[in-house]
Amino acid sequence: MRSVLLTILAVLGGVFAIQNVAQVPVTFVVWHTETYLAVAILGALLLGFLIGAITVLPWGMRARKDAKGAHKRLAELEAHAGGTAPAAAAKATSVVSSSRDRV
Question: Is residue 74 part of a domain?
């Protein structure tokens, strides 16, 4: 499935590049150049993706850190509950048994 999707995206990218071969001027502050329209559009797309990824990175790192802490706390609670649960169950069983004996 993944290879089919990648093939479709590659074909669409190729068609896009073939249809947008006109030379366009690109100006940024004092930098001037001419490039193909497809290169300019894809470059702007890549730059936008990188800026978005860098902007979201701190929140992703914090969420990963919080999840790791939650998993650690869960493991501690399960270990604690696992250590005391059999003893509590045994005690409850003995109380039930002794109350039945009295009746």
Answer: yes
